[in-house]
Design a protein that fits this description.
With 68 residues, this protein is of the alpha+beta class. Helices cover 37% and strands 10% of the residues. It has helices at 24-41, 54-60; strands spanning 2-4, 10-13.
Length: 68
Amino acid sequence: MLVHDDDKAFVLAKTMPFSPICPVSVGEALGLFYALEWVSDMQMDIVDFVVDSKTTNGVFHSNRSDVS
């Protein structure tokens, strides 16, 4: 995870290992969850998230209701 400012200058980064090893889709969702948690802990109020996962991005922007 990384944070950059409006001018795209690097501000802060964090890595987080997942254990046990999990499926890619679960790891991608966990990555977004931990990024949300990290930003919340730092009390940042205006944040844009960018993910490079087609699966996570597609599900997040889907119009389907998933109640699983």
